[in-house]
Amino acid sequence: MLKGRAHSILIASLTLIAGLIVSPATSLRADTAKQINRESRAALQQLYSTTPPARQLGDSASAILVFPSIVKAGFLVGGQHGEGALFSGGKTLGYYSTTAASYGLQAGVQKFCYALFFINKSDLDYLYKSDGWEIGTGPSVVIVDQGMARSFTTTTLRKGVYAFAFGQKGLMAGLGLQGTKIRNIRPD
Question: Which residues are CB-contacts of 20 (< 8 A; sequence separation ≥ 6)?
């Protein structure tokens, strides 16, 4: 009986913690649009300096959505949250948040960045039209790893969205974008 109750309390506590991590509470939100913009541009430059194929992809993409700081934490129940900016032709088109929750064999805390490269306008239009785009629905997302980045050329591009995860810090097993929800936000 105690074992079952202790398990229930543990799950409830972890769910509460994950909710606090994932919710767009004031403490997790960036201070201003200017700050999100500055950090997103710096993260994109970091990606370009460490992964030259990303710059080539950026030159041909319709738009790039950059999340400069996503915090992921969990123990059985986990969550992640971050905010970023959408760029096209050097201009900022909008601001977005990314949120995800998960359950399973996981433990740790990790901070990372990711950038989504929208290859054509129809994929970008899907982001605009959807009220909270969930990765795994809509345009196909290709996660570009180190091996793919080495052989990546603009002639190998397909329709869809290409995702680069980079700048990982901390200890957390696995990194996936499936089930991640992306929403338009209006920062202060």
Answer: none
Angstrom CA distances, 13 to 71, 76, 99, stand at: 19, 11, 19
Q: What is the count of structural domains for the chain?
A: 1
DSSP one-letter string for 61-98: -SEEEEEEEEEEEEEEEEEEEEEEEEEETTEEEEEEEE
As a residue count, the chain comes to 188
Q: What is the pLDDT of residues 41-61, one digit of tens each?
A: 999 999 999 988 899 899 989
pLDDT digits (tens, 9 = 90+) for 131-186: 776 665 444 556 565 444 343 444 344 557 888 888 888 776 544 555 678 889 98
The fraction of the chain above a pLDDT of 70, given in percent, is 63
- How many CB atoms sit inside 10 A of residue 152's CB? 18
User: Domain range holding 131?
Assistant: 2-185
Residues forming a β-bridge with 185: 95
Q: Would the pLDDT of 112 be above 80?
A: yes
Alpha carbon dihedral 173, 165, 39, 159, in 10-degree steps, equals -150
CA distance 18 to 33: 26
Three-state secondary-structure class, residue 179: coil
> Model's pTM, two decimal places?
0.74
- Angstrom CA distances, 106 to 3, 44, 180, stand at 21, 28, 17
Q: Distance from CA of residue 105 to its chain's centroid?
A: 21
